[in-house]
Amino acid sequence: LLPFLVLAPLLPLAGVAAAFHPRLDPAADLATAAPVSGIWLFFVRSVAVIATALAPTIAAAMFLPGGGWLPLLVVLPALAVSMAALALSTLTGPVSAAIATAIAWVAVVCGLGLAAISPAVVYGGPAQAASLVVIVVACYLLVARRRTLDLGWNR
Fold it and tell me: What is the chain's pLDDT, residue by residue, as a tens digit (155 residues)?
């Protein structure tokens, strides 16, 4: 259960990083030549990747011990980690943002897990509320800094 609790939110994050990595994107040239806004493309890709990566995470959570709520408890931290990486990508490249966010997530899980003697504390009520706050703040930052996404990192 411990590896799942640590790695579950990182699956959507890995998908986001891969979706914006030039070497892993066979359609990178098409995306840059497309007559659409880079911001629009950024959000469409992000939503598609996060949604498809959350599905296997939730499915895997259904088969683990830990109660009937575990599949739903995974969603907010996974969204929070992915949204934090997307917001951070307004300051740096998306792959660097994903790596930094992954390191921060593992540090938080390990730190809280050691303090509480259980890493499951990151899926408790206060942690769910904190995840919701991270999602709201990240969405605000994405909207406020949306123009920085069109500066050529995806070209």
Answer: 677 778 888 888 888 777 777 677 676 667 666 676 666 777 777 788 888 888 887 888 777 776 677 777 888 898 899 899 889 988 888 788 889 999 999 998 888 888 887 777 888 888 899 999 999 999 999 888 877 765 444 44
Q: How far is CA 21 from CA 27, 52, 85, 89, 154, in A?
A: 11, 17, 14, 12, 8
Number of H helices and E strands in the chain, helices first, is 8, 0
Secondary structure of residue 68 in the 3-state scheme: coil
CA distances from 100 to 91, 92, 93, 105, 137 (A): 12, 10, 11, 9, 17
Write phi, then psi, for 128 (nearest 5 degrees): -65, -40
Residue type, 3: P
Question: Quick one: tokens of 67?
Answer: 């109660």
Q: Taking a C-beta distance cutoff of 8 angstroms, is the pair 58, 9 a contact?
A: no
User: What pTM did the predictor assign?
Assistant: 0.80
